[in-house]
Design a protein that fits this description.
It comes from Sorangium cellulosum (strain So ce56) (Polyangium cellulosum (strain So ce56)). This is Ferrochelatase. GO terms for molecular function: lyase activity. Keywords: Lyase. There is one protein chain. About 50% of the residues lie in helices and about 0% in strands. The protein has one domain. With about 240 residues, it is mostly helical.
Length: about 240
């Protein structure tokens, strides 16, 4: 007879308290009305596991990640964290899961609204735009590296430090911001209504690199997704002047 790992009541309650942070739990997935609650996602992924310690670490780790996204990207619209959660679970042992969660939390702190960079959303990370652009530069070396693999996290850490240096020098593209302004180095408007419109359409026409709403993380890098997104934004009338 086999047992099934059950999320401890205290961890379940902690996850349930996070649900309001996700707002409407918006999803870009064309085939579902909203993203799952944190509790539902954990239950789906740990279903059938007999490792209670690992399940507890996973519930805690996912809670830490969700809090970090909500705290550092409070305007984040879309919450398709299914594949990110799956990668967290697949990190392995309870300590490895904790290490993975801490890496993601650190990235949120480094790029979010409490940092010098002040990006508004976690969308480019969650949906693989940053990753696809990175792989495409050296596909022979990077094609086998996933969007939530440690090697890519290492790159993002280095990229964060490089961007902070550019901001400190008041770079033309990555200049110092005024007050509570958000950074937008892109050629298109990224206010919430425009961000939502654009990315829902990108999902409908299959121009999102990582289908983050799928547990198998179906993905591809071999298209110029950043340019294609900008072109679609232009067709929608969302283009802007020089980014910040």
């Amino acid at each position: 007879m086999t047992g099934v790992a059950v999320i401890p009541p205290e961890e379940r309650d902690a996850l349930a308290r996070l649900t309001p942070l996700l707002g409407a739990r918006a999803s870009v997935a064309p085939d579902r009305p909203c993203a799952p609650t944190p509790v539902a996602l954990v239950e789906q992924i740990v279903n059938g596991s007999e490792d209670a310690e690992r399940a507890r670490a996973f519930a805690r780790g996912l809670g830490e990640v969700i809090r970090a996204v909500a705290d550092n990207f409070p305007d984040n619209i879309f919450w398709d964290v299914d594949y990110l959660a799956c990668c967290l679970w697949q990190a392995g042992s309870a300590p490895a899961i904790g290490d993975f969660a801490r890496r993601v939390v650190s990235l949120c702190l480094g790029f979010g609204n409490k940092s010098k960079l002040r990006f508004r959303y976690a969308h480019d990370f969650l949906y693989g735009y940053d990753w696809a652009r990175w792989v495409m530069r050296k596909p022979e070396e990077r094609a086998g590296i996933g969007p939530f693999d440690v090697s890519f996290f290492d790159y993002l850490d280095g990229r964060q430090r490089a961007l902070v240096e550019l901001v400190a020098s008041n770079d033309r593209k990555y200049s110092q911001l005024n007050g509570r302004e958000y950074r937008n180095p892109f050629s298109f408007i990224r206010e919430p209504p425009e961000e939502s419109q654009l990315h829902c359409l990108l999902a409908q026409v299959d121009l999102i690199p990582l289908k983050a709403w799928r547990l198998d993380g179906e993905r591809r890098w071999d298209l110029p997704f950043t340019d294609l997104r900008a072109k679609l934004a232009d067709r929608l009338g969302l283009s802007r002047g020089e980014g910040r």
